[in-house]
């Protein structure tokens, strides 16, 4: 498993060559080749360095099949999204995704958003992490936020949602084919691949007031796809953001 995982991690990181990997690790190309062929195994210090290089856990590197379902994923790419405006709302409940989505749908109708000229509704959502241990463990409550992307010149006819601007941001993006056929594997797998890409290519993870991650679901030629976005400078432990369709 280790040898195939190492080949996979090297290839998804800008198609890193064995020579380039050897230079980063302070070993010879022949050593890397032996690791990938299973002829040799790195010492513990080198294993830690590999985990740092590819932003993965030791357990995943040694025991998981990191290339599982790889045909469902596109290569990771970088995209710049221009500044946009959104209307958002947060709910804490046993089923916050459904609750806040329905709330925002009602808000969109009351506010006049759905009647705005040439407007195509697009909703996104993300986990809201500021829930107490008592709320989670005693009452089984979770937090979730949903937002409509809104036109710059739209003025709501009612209150009930916070209006915010999202600044221009550079994202790492991956496309997942048929994400809901194995949602608990493919969607987390998409995030993991982007995190590995960001870590392996030395991209910044400093915190700024950015929309850290989100998903966009769409159909093309009758096939469902999901684009997963993670901001280049995202702190990976913060909330994931999901598209709602």
Produce the secondary structure layout.
Layout: H1 2-12, H2 18-25, H3 29-37, H4 44-54, H5 58-63, E1 77-81, E2 84-93, H6 96-111, E3 123-127, H7 133-137, E4 142-150, E5 162-166, E6 169-177, H8 183-200, E7 213-220, E8 223-231, E9 241-244
Antiparallel strand pairs: 1-6, 2-4, 2-5, 3-4, 3-9, 6-8, 7-8
Helix pairs in contact: 2-3
What does it look like?
34% of the residues lie in helices and 26% in strands. The protein has 245 residues and is of the alpha+beta class. It folds into 3 domains: 2-67, lambda repressor-like DNA-binding domains (434 Repressor (Amino-terminal Domain)); 84-166; 167-244, no CATH class. The strands form 2 sheets. It has a 5-stranded antiparallel beta sheet, with helices on one face. A 4-stranded antiparallel beta sheet has the order 1-6-8-7, covered by helices on one side. The two termini are 37 Å apart.
Short key terms for the protein model shown above:
245 residues; alpha+beta; 434 Repressor (Amino-terminal Domain); 5-stranded antiparallel sheet; 4-stranded antiparallel sheet; 8 helices; 9 strands; 26% strand; elongated
DSSP strand count: 9
The helix count comes to 8
| Distance separating the two termini | 37 Å
| Sequence stretches where pLDDT stays below 50 over 5 or more residues | 204-210, 235-245
Radius of gyration using CA atoms only: 21 Å
What is the share of helical residues?
25-40%
Shape: elongated
Q: How much of the residues is beta strand, in percent?
A: 25-35%
Mean pLDDT: 84
Largest sheet, strands/sense/barrel: 5 strands, antiparallel
* Major beta sheet, strand line-up: 5-2-4-3-9
**Sequence of secondary-structure elements:** HHHHHEEHEHEEEHEEE
Q: From the helix content, strand content and strand pairing, which structural class follows?
A: alpha+beta
> How many structural units, i.e. domains?
3
């Amino acid at each position: 498993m280790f040898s195939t995982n190492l080949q996979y991690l090297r290839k998804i990181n800008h198609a890193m060559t064995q020579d380039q990997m050897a230079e980063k690790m302070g070993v010879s190309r022949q050593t890397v080749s032996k690791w990938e062929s299973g002829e040799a195994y790195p010492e513990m210090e080198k294993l830690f360095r590999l985990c740092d290089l590819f932003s993965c856990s030791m357990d995943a590197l040694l025991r998981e099949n990191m290339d599982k379902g790889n045909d469902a994923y596109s290569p990771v790419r970088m995209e710049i999204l221009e500044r946009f405006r959104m209307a958002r709302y947060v709910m804490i409940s046993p089923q916050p995704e459904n609750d806040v989505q329905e709330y925002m749908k009602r808000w969109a109708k009351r506010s006049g958003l759905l009647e705005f000229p040439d407007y195509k509704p697009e909703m996104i959502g993300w986990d809201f992490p500021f829930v107490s241990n008592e709320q989670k463990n005693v009452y089984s409550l979770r937090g979730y936020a949903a937002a409509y992307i809104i036109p710059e010149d739209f003025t709501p006819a009612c209150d009930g949602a916070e209006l915010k601007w999202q600044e221009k941001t550079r994202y790492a993006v991956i496309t997942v084919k048929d994400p809901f056929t194995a949602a608990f594997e493919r969607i987390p797998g998409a995030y993991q691949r982007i995190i590995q890409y960001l870590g392996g290519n030395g991209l910044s993870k400093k915190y700024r007031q950015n929309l850290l991650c989100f998903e966009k679901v769409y159909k093309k030629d009758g096939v469902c796809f999901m684009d997963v976005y993670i901001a280049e400078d995202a702190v990976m432990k913060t909330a994931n953001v999901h598209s709602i369709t």
